[in-house]
Amino acid sequence: MRWGLKMMVAGSLLAGAVHADAQAVMYKCRAPGRVTYSDRPCAGARQLGAATPHHADKWKAPPQDRATIARRAPLPVEARQECSALDARLQDQQAMLKTQGEAATLQDEMPLVRSRKRYRELKC
User: Fold this and answer.
1) Which pTM does this prediction carry?
2) What local confidence, expressed as pLDDT, does residue 79 receive?
3) 95, 117 in Cβ contact below 8 A?
4) Cα–Cα distance between 81 and 108 in angstroms, integer?
5) Helix orientation angle between 106-122 and 77-100, rounded to the nearest 10 degrees
6) 88 partner at 20 to 30 Å CA-CA among 36, 51, 57, 82?
7) Exposed/middle/buried for 24, CB within 10 Å: 0-12, 13-18, 19+?
């Protein structure tokens, strides 16, 4: 039992040492005719590796669909602004019709139809 405890303590100390080494910053020092590497900076040393870890926000969605950006790029500024307004308006109108369900009439659907028509005319 004591042997297992000693091994567990030694393993945790070793794991801590490996983790500390993984985050160490190295420096490349040049002297006439030789190159040395050190964990301490010297005169004119170049830092190797990252001092802090880099984090990428891969889980974040892009700000806007690239295909939409490419499709709207040749449009004039006014048309792009109208397309953005239509995006929001179409969502609101679709949500309104969804809440009405089967009770929606043709008159209730007409604003959505007009917005979709304008969206297609602008080639949003």
Assistant:
1) 0.48
2) 95
3) no
4) 25
5) 160
6) 57
7) exposed
Pairing of strands 26-31, 34-38: antiparallel
Q: Using CB atoms within 10 A of its CB, is residue 74 exposed (0-12), middle (13-18) or buried (19+)?
A: exposed
Q: Which two tokens stand for residue 38?
A: 């050190």
Q: Please identify which residue in the block is written with the tokens 């990428």.
A: 56
Residue 28: which H helix or E strand, with range? strand 26-31
> Can you list the alpha helix ranges (DSSP code H) found in the chain?
2-22, 66-72, 77-100, 106-122
Sheet (strand 46-48) strand order = 34-38, 26-31, 46-48
Q: What is the identity of the amino acid at 40?
A: R
C-alpha 109/C-alpha 101 separation (Å) is 11
Residue 116's CB is within 10 A of a number of other CB atoms, namely 14
Query: What six digits make up the tokens of 47?
Result: 């830092």
By residue count, the chain amounts to 124
- The answer to whether 90 and 116 have CB atoms below 8 angstroms apart is yes
Residue 18 pLDDT > 60: no
